[in-house]
Each structure stands twice: as C-alpha cells, then as structure tokens.
Amino acid sequence: MATKKRSPKTTTKTSAKKKTTSKKSVAKAAAKKQAKTAAPKKAGAALGPYTPVVRAGDWVIVSGQLGVLDGKLVSGGVAAQTAQAVVNLKNQLATVGLTLHDVKKTLCFLTDMDTFTTFNEAYVKGFGGSRPARSTIGVAALPFRGAVEIEAWAFKPVR
C-alpha cells in the first residue's frame, strides 16, 4: 500500500490497483465523451482546436461551419460557400441525430455585407422550410479566407 498525503494532518492509503482502475475509468469516460462529440468522416474534421458539436442539456451547439469541402474552401463565391456551409451544418447535426428542423437559432458571419442578398438566397434554399431565428453579422475576416460562416443552436430534449 502507498500512503498519499491529502493535507498536513490527514493521510490516506490507496493501492496501486485502485489507481490503475481509476485511470482506466477516466480513460473510458474520456473515450465515451469523445465518441459523443467526434464527427464522422462524412461530417468533416474540425479545422481547429475546438469541438464541432457539443450537447449542453437540451441544447446542441454546432460550431461555425465554413464553405469548406475536403479541407479546402469551395469555389463559386458566397452562394457556393453558403450552400456548402449548410451541408456541413446538416452533417454535423446528423452526428448527434438532429436535423435542420431542430435548429432554433443561427449566427451567421459575412465578410462583405454587400453579399447579403446572395447569402440569404442560398441560406433559404439550404434550410428549406426551416426558419430558425437568425443574426447575421459583418466581420473583417474568417478562417481560410472564407466569406461565410454559420453557427447553429438546436434544441432536442434529452430523454
């Protein structure tokens, strides 16, 4: 048995076996958490140090999606980038069993607000009959020199 000091006045005894079991259960929990948030190849890997999809109670938050396919920005300007960003959003939602109809709010970023009409047409087409609340913000730049990014908040009660 190893003795571990917890405070100047208190000591506890733990066995090496318990520590191993503890490490295994921590690793198992981490793997389970990763499985819940990891996106399959279809959804595309995260383009940075963040989790693409996170559940927080009844809410599911999808990190901003760019018009990227196979790690590269699609050609065709704002319309094509918006269409691809919506496809990427759909794919991320699918990893946790949700659809665009579960989305209650989107936050959209454009690097040129003069392209809002083109963006809006592609957004409406991509979202079909779904009309979540939305904010659209003009920004100076986006990763990968993208013109469009779409973040989404979906609501799906945990059962």
Question: What are its keywords?
Answer:
two-stranded antiparallel sheet, 159 residues, disordered N terminus, 60s Ribosomal Protein L30, Chain: A, five-stranded mixed beta sheet, 2 domains
Secondary structure: elements and pairs:
Elements: E1 2-5, E2 11-14, H1 16-37, E3 53-56, E4 59-66, E5 68-69, E6 72-73, H2 77-94, E7 103-110, H3 116-127, E8 133-138, E9 148-155
Parallel strand pairs: 7-8
Antiparallel strand pairs: 1-2, 3-4, 4-9, 5-6, 7-9
Q: How does this structure look, described?
A:
- The protein has 159 residues and is an alpha+beta fold.
- The chain contains three helices and nine strands, in the order ββαββββαβαββ.
- The chain has a five-stranded mixed beta sheet. A two-stranded antiparallel ribbon has the order 1-2. The protein has a two-stranded antiparallel ribbon with strand order 5-6.
- A hairpin with a 5-residue loop joins β1 (2-5) and β2.
- Mean pLDDT is 81; it is low at 1-41.
What is the compact description of this entry?
The chain is α+β, with helices and mostly antiparallel strands. It has helices at residues 16-37, 77-94, 116-127; strands at 2-5, 11-14, 53-56, 59-66, 68-69, 72-73, 103-110, 133-138, 148-155.
Structural domain tally: 2
CATH class of the largest domain: Alpha Beta
Q: In what range is the share of β-strand residues?
A: 25-35%
User: How much helix, percentage-wise, in residues?
Assistant: 25-40%
Order of helices and strands: EEHEEEEHEHEE
Strands, count: 9
SS field, number of helical segments:
3
Q: What assembly state would you assign to the polypeptide chains in this entry?
A: single chain
The spatial strand order of the largest sheet comes to: 3-4-9-7-8
Structural class: alpha+beta
Question: Uncertain runs with pLDDT below 50, 5 residues or more?
Answer: 1-41
Rg for CA atoms: 21 Å
Report on the biggest sheet: 5 strands, mixed
The rounded distance between the terminal residues' Cα atoms is: 43 Å
CATH topology of the largest domain: 60s Ribosomal Protein L30, Chain: A
Shape: globular
CATH superfamily grouping of the largest domain: RutC-like
